Amino acid sequence: MPLARVRGVNRTDRLYAIVEELRAAAPGRRSARELAARYEVSVRTIERDIDALLQAGVPIYADVGRRGGYTLDKSMTLPPLNFTPAEAVAVAVALSRADGTPFAAAARGAVHKIVTAMSARDAAAARELANRVRVFERAGEEPRPVPVVIQDAIAARQVLRLTYVDRVGMRTERAVEPVLFMVGGGRQWYLIAWCRLRQAARAFRVDRISHAEATGEPAPEHSYEDFAPNIPDLVARAPALGPG
After folding, report:
1. pTM attached to this predicted model
2. Distance (Å, whole) CA 1 – CA 182
3. CATH class assigned to 11-76
4. Fold category of 148-230 in CATH
5. What's the mean per-residue pLDDT of the chain?
6. CB neighbour burial string for 106-144, b if at least 16 within 10 angstroms, e if fewer
7. 3-class secondary structure, 204
8. Angle between helices 11-25 and 43-55 (to 10 degrees)
9. CB 224 within 8 Å of CB 209
């Protein structure tokens, strides 16, 4: 049976609608031609929409062939959530502070997934409310983005090669064994690592790292607790993910 047509939908709403359509149809499939007819756009437009959703981390899979199409892995998605529009906007405002941090892209992905999992009515209300909210930033306050290569090296526990400029402007080349990220006052981020040049634990201000390159070399495992006594100016705690 042909899908009912949906007229006059902008791209943002169409992306949300495609996810909901695929979730409702799973484990069945929807072809690009079916989706194009439903939203009255070209097949090429649907293909671009699917590509955008994939880049946002939505678990969509494509099967080729006459009976092929797109399907959504329900096991990797959230069911409709009971977020109110205000709660969704509150999360978006909080995560907007992640800009310039190692988790900026992840924060944007999280907001997208939350809104996508909401009912169409609540998602529309959340977007309307968000349009009436502004996050104030002082001029020059935005921190320098953290290179993805540093985040990847921490996750994969691999040695990094850095070009680092210290507080007096001296430039050095260093091989470091990453341990963790740390955020200090003023939203300033640090890379905590074992520095092979100094043969000691060091806190590298990320905005002073002018170049970072992955070496692919596995790094020895280090514990922050072993490093803490050597970094007296920084007192840290892990972020809470729930009560307790």
Report:
1. 0.53
2. 55
3. mainly alpha
4. SH3 type barrels. (2.30.30)
5. 80
6. ebbbbbbbbbbbbeeebbebbbebbeeeeeeeeeeeeee
7. strand
8. 80
9. no
